[in-house]
TrEMBL record:
PROSITE patterns: EF_HAND_1, EF_HAND_2
Keywords assigned: Calcium
Domain EF-hand, chain residue ranges per copy: 1-22
Record protein name field: EF-hand domain-containing protein
Gene3D superfamilies: EF-hand
Keyword Lipid metabolism in annotation: no
InterPro entries named among the record's database cross-references: EF-hand-dom_pair, EF_Hand_1_Ca_BS, EF_hand_dom
Pfam families hit by this protein: EF-hand_5
GO MF term list: calcium ion binding
The keyword Chloroplast belongs to this UniProt entry's keyword annotation: no
Organism lineage string: Eukaryota, Viridiplantae, Streptophyta, Embryophyta, Tracheophyta
Amino acid sequence: MNQDGRLSLEELKQAFGHLGAAVPAYRAILGLCKADANHDGSVDMDELDELVKYAYQLGPPKLTVLFRLASKAVDKQKIGIGSN
């Protein structure tokens, strides 16, 4: 994870893979489609709630990994790393 304040499709695939999804790419694509409101190909902090809602439907373990990813992204964003 590159901790740039956004979750890319590749990062989402990795996350869902760690969660044990049978087809992580499928879960990542669905999560991105549901959350990426501005259609930039990633989930930023403003869109994270929708990704969490999607993950919540899949069960609590999915939320744990997404919260870890989000907290890393937030920490980097707070100190200005990875912002344009």
